[in-house]
Amino acid sequence: MSAREIPFNRPYVTGRELSYVAEAHRNGQLAGNGPFTRRCQAWLEERIGCYKALLTHSCTAALEMAATLCEVQAGDEVILPSFTFVSTANAFVARGATPVFVDIRPDTLNLDGELVVEAISERTKVIVPVHYAGVGCDLTPYQAIARERGIFVVEDAAHSILATDEGRSLGSIGDLAAFSFHETKNLSSGQGGALAINDERLAARAEIIWQKGTNRSDFCRGAVDQYTWIDQGSSYLPGEIPAAFLSAQMEEADLITERRLAIWQTYHRELEGLEQRGWLRRPCVPEGSGHNAHIYHVLLSNAEARTRIIEFLRRKGIGAVFHYVPLHTSPAGRRYGREAGELTVTEDIAARLLRLPLWLGIEPLLPRVLRAVGEFFDTVEA
Ligand SMILES: *Cc1c(COP(=O)(O)O)cnc(C)c1O
């Protein structure tokens, strides 16, 4: 990458990560569930307001833990958007469930709650809303029905650390929630994640699943004098080294979010003119959303314009990307899942959405990005 290039993403480091990693080394405990793991979990419990948080090696792992905790099995259906990352579906498919893809709303790009209600069947075991870009997905249309029928709600909160909706933390609303600390997310340990547990009845079993199906956590607390295999589980804990790295990021989380919001606001303010001229649409953030500026996206008028702007920006050394390939159109999605009705909004949005670079340190380069976007439309208009 040349010095002139503006990558799509650049992981941020606070500067304290390596000294915390050295401290983990000095502690003489490098496997998981040590002091740094506990520090991160306490931070999550306080900031999300969940009953319990367990650090995992990825959000994917946290979703797999959720699937085990909900006792998902072959024949069960799991309702989720098609406009999401593969892990939202895969964690449940791994246990034999059928993903049922429901369309998104054209404004927030989150699951359409009314369509979720229509898609609920006798077989529905779990509903998995994704808070796209850290903008809260409204769960109210189906929360009461889910409670009545014993359907679990698992928030895919991969984008949502420190985001709120109507004053409530995202990740504190469903029975369970999965967070990601992948390099591309707001807080990162390279790869990492967490499971937030809001239904306290699930907490004891979650810890066992986390610890390879053993009661090792009870043993570490001195509650039992030996530990043994008592349930299903896997190795979901990260070691202390990524936990140490992550704890440095957590200490700066408010600052990181503020700086991301400032970048987001700059894009939003500066692109208003292009929206007014009808060249693009900016994100719709509802009143009451306390989003965390995880993503800045725009919608182009069609797929062709998106292809051309990505190429135009690439030639100027600017990384802009799109996502998601709708899961219902993917080979695995077609094999394992089914569609609940037409997914016209998903297909339309996925073809036109463009993500602009958003990372800490890009601030002085934003005028260049914005100028390039403006130039693209000037050429189109000419
Ligand atoms: C990033 C992401 C995941 C997966 O996170 P990992 O930590 O990489 O496993 C899951 N769902 C969504 C919506 C994501 O954006």
From TrEMBL:
Q: Where is the active site?
A: 185
* The EC number(s) this enzyme carries: 2.6.1.59
Modification N6-(pyridoxal phosphate)lysine occurs at: 185
Q: Which UniProt keywords apply?
A: Aminotransferase, Pyridoxal phosphate, Transferase
Cross-referenced InterPro entries: DegT/StrS_aminotransferase, PyrdxlP-dep_Trfase, PyrdxlP-dep_Trfase_major, PyrdxlP-dep_Trfase_small, WecE-like
Q: GO annotations under biological process?
A: polysaccharide biosynthetic process
* MF GO annotations: dTDP-4-amino-4,6-dideoxygalactose transaminase activity; pyridoxal phosphate binding
First-level EC class: transferase
Q: Which Pfam families match?
A: DegT_DnrJ_EryC1
Q: Which family does it belong to?
A: Belongs to the DegT/DnrJ/EryC1 family.
Name of the protein in question? dTDP-4-amino-4,6-dideoxygalactose transaminase
